[in-house]
Amino acid sequence: PPGAEPAGICLACSYECHGTHRLFELYTKRNFRCDCGNSKFKNLQCKLLPEKGKVNSGNKYNDNFYGLYCTCKRPYPDPEDEIPDEMIQCIVCEDWFHGRHLGAVPPESGDFHEMVCQACMKRCHFLWAYASQLAVPPLTKANSLEDEGIVLKVEESEEQKKEIKKESGVEHHNTKEEKQSEQFNEPSTSSGSACPEVVTKSEEPLCKLKELQSKPFVKKDTATFWPSNWRSKLCTCEDCLKMYSELEVQFLTDECDTVLAYENKGTSDQETERRDPLMDTLNSMNRVQQVELICEYNDLKTELTDYLRRFADEGTVVKREDIQHFFEEFQSRKRRRTNRMQYYCS
């Protein structure tokens, strides 16, 4: 209620424990524990897991938990907003943004998989070095020279230009394969070097980020849009991992952290739940075992149905002792059949 602390609950508890409450659906929230039944609710106990801690100190609550989204801090759907617009979730802060409030026109929804908002790009400014090669360019109505970043070359000193030319002096002799490997931020493995793995002692371990930062790139006050596999291209050297940890964005290198991976896992779990345990068991057996199991299953089904029908006809309640008695009799009959079985050799 107004004036109270915000709380977040899982999807299961929203169905089981909060059917009459006003809820905001926030979709996914990273590193978050369900608050249902803890100290934030005075007279409510969780029906699914009553034994809970009083508070989840690791949870973070942004404006979404008050029903407000985007930089405009408006509800969704907004009764006062007549402009049709799509809401896109930032993968870093996990807030939701109107497409028109990202500083750039988003590409078509099928052209990108993830978005990093303006504020998170300022905080994680290292991503701009990757954006020049990996990000999906936003839609633009009329690009100026400044928007394209061409002015960056004017800002470079003559010494920087010479240094860049010196570093790329062999560029004219590179093959297409070498250029492609450079594009994906990987060291070249072409035949131009007899032993590409040999390095001098003075050289530092290869850092993809430093390699990209040594080249001209542009920073803009906009959100960025990324393809499906861009996380695998991020550097994982010791210095970069330390930087991710300090910025609390270690999840960026985890491809299982994506919403697509999350949805695929849910689909896979549902398919597992829908599988018939009997069919799974049958598939693990040979032909003879399959036939024997099916026969035993059909015998059990027939005898149990006949046994329970008597109770239905008489209108009596089936008790636990009745079921135990049935299975004792069933096992006894099964042993007698097995003992009388005759085997013939041809």
Describe the structure.
There is one protein chain. The chain is mostly helical and 346 residues long. Mean pLDDT is 80; it is low at 142-202. It has helices at residues 11-16, 118-123, 127-134, 151-155, 158-167, 176-183, 208-213, 238-247, 259-274, 277-283, 287-314, 320-340; strands spanning 87-89, 96-98, 114-116, 224-226. A hairpin with a 6-residue loop joins strand 1 and strand 2 (96-98). The longest helix has 28 residues, at 287-314. Helices cover 38% and strands 3% of the residues. The protein has a two-stranded antiparallel ribbon. Strands 3-4 form a two-stranded antiparallel ribbon.
Structure summary:
This protein is mainly alpha-helical and 346 residues long. The protein has helices at 11-16, 118-123, 127-134, 151-155, 158-167, 176-183, 208-213, 238-247, 259-274, 277-283, 287-314, 320-340, and strands spanning 87-89, 96-98, 114-116, 224-226. 11% of the residues are buried.
Which keywords apply here?
single chain; mainly alpha; two-stranded antiparallel ribbon; 12 helices; zinc-finger; ubl conjugation pathway; ubl conjugation; zinc ion binding; phosphoprotein
Biggest sheet details: 2 strands, antiparallel
Report Rg. Answer: 32 Å
Number of strands: 4
Strand line-up of the largest beta sheet = 1-2
How many helices in DSSP terms? 12
Describe the global form: elongated
* Regions with little confidence, pLDDT below 50 for 5+ residues: 142-202
Task: List the secondary-structure elements in sequence, H or E.
Answer: HEEEHHHHHHEHHHHH
Helix content: 25-40%
From the N-terminal CA to the C-terminal CA, the straight-line distance is: 83 Å
Average pLDDT, all residues: 80
Hey, roughly how much beta strand do the residues contain? under 5%
The secondary-structure class comes to mainly alpha
